[in-house]
Amino acid sequence: MSSLSLTDVWKIYDGDVVAVREASFEARDGEFLALLGPSGCGKSSTMRMIAGLETISKGEIRFGDKVVNNLKPAERNVALAFESYALYSPMTVRENLEFPLRSRGFAGSEINSRVEKVVQTFQISDLLDRKPSGLSGGQAQRVSIARALIRDPNVMLLDEPLSHLDYRLRTELRVKIRRIHDELGATTVYVTHDQEEAVALSDRIIVMNHAIIQQIGDVEALWTTPVNRFVAGFLGDPAMNFIDAQYTDGKMETAAGKISAVAPADAVTRTEFVFGFRPEDTEVQSAGEHEDGLHGEVMVNEFHGERCVLTIKTTSGQLKAIDGRASPWRPGDLVRLVPETGKSHLFCSKTGAALQHGKEAAA
Ligand SMILES: Nc1ncnc2c1ncn2[C@@H]1O[C@H](COP(=O)(O)OP(=O)(O)OP(=O)(O)O)[C@@H](O)[C@H]1O
Q1: With a 6 A CB cut-off, is 11 part of the ligand 1 pocket?
Q2: Is 6 helix (H, G, I), strand (E, B) or coil?
Q3: The pairing of beta strand 317-324 with beta strand 32-36
Q4: Which of 13, 39, 164 to probe ligand 1 with, by most ligand atoms within 8 A of CB?
Q5: Disulfide check for 142: which of 23, 81, 122, 287 has CB 3.0–4.6 Å away?
Q6: pLDDT-derived band of residue 324, with 50, 70 and 90 as boundaries?
Q7: Is the C-beta atom of 50 inside 6 A of ligand 1?
Q8: Which domains can be identified in the chain, with CATH numbers?
């Protein structure tokens, strides 16, 4: 096993497409890292450079102390499971699973016991004699993960490995992936655009957007101290509410209403900013006579079992609030949203950077 580090790594395609810009991070020995971001942000390019499937335009990648920039994929001892499966088509599923072990000289009995184990784990015993062309997308994906995890790699790289599976199987298999990671102790990087998957699986999350790493941290850090509006909005479902606001006479004013005491007035040196608050940190009250709060009209109240999600139309745009399972509000009701100000966030209107006491937070 080994740690993995990237130092100022760039990927530039065709001379001018910057897919990854100055990426630097370290996965500690045995750590499970998720690389999270929207489509096209550069996640797969990062993974392919770590795997050795793409050249590195600039920068350095190390496994432990060793620079691997010029090593071929086979020399890096990485286990790969990519969304596109990449199974060997002339071979049966069994032969596909045995291949990485045979090519490393494992004994026959060891091969049999390892195949038996992954076949059980990934529920693919009835597929062993089929060729990849006879598998569904979800079945091929399970075989691909099983093949990646069958040996003892230095580093496991899993790129959207569960994307073709239904929700139930996805949640089941992610638990198994995490367990195998813990058993092997392998350093793992897991690419996903699904925040729920990243949160459930990983020790730390790297959030990427537009080729740039935005923030690296555990879930708690990303949740409570997002460095910018993108990170704040990417984690959480429903996402954080954002509204334009300004400070006047010690109160925060928005088009939808006033809120007192977001932060001491003298702490906010800017007059205009974006106010962010999470739906779960928002109290919903009857509009009443109170001046304080964000006023609006209930559009939808969705029942989600343990909670209800309200969509409220305001002059600052649509906002979301989470209420208890017995939420009384109905479409057309006039309500007042009172964000829990201790848990709210302020962002620069121009750059989106988080503001802390009027200053931009360090990334
Ligand atoms: N071989 C290539 N040649 C030119 N541009 C490429 C190539 N591969 C990727 N790109 C571009 O690089 C950027 C990042 O792509 P990448 O596949 O790394 O993103 P991603 O975050 O993995 O996206 P997705 O989640 O959709 O797979 C995109 O703009 C993409 O169009």
Answers
A1: no
A2: strand
A3: unpaired
A4: 13
A5: 122
A6: very high
A7: no
A8: 4-228 (3.40.50.300), 231-360 (2.40.50.140)
| Token representation of residue 315 | 């002059």
Q: Whose CA is nearest to atom 7 of ligand 1?
A: 13
The residue whose CA has the least distance to atom 23 of ligand 1 is 40
Q: With a cut of 60, say whether residue 267 has pLDDT above it.
A: no
**Tens digits of per-residue pLDDT, 47-106?**
999 999 999 999 999 999 999 999 998 888 888 887 666 789 999 999 999 998 998 889
Distance, CA 96 to ligand 1 centroid (Å)? 28
Q: Enter the tokens of residue 114.
A: 């390892």
CA-CA distances (angstroms) from residue 83 to 36, 44, 133, 176? Answer: 15, 10, 16, 17
Q: Omega before 331 cis (within 30°)?
A: no
Tell me how long the chain is. Answer: 363
- Taking CA atoms only, the protein residue closest to ligand 1 atom 14 is 42
Pairing of strands 345-347, 187-192: unpaired
Output DSSP code: residue 362: P
- Are the beta carbons of 355 and 361 closer than 8 angstroms? yes
d(CA 313, CA 297): 5
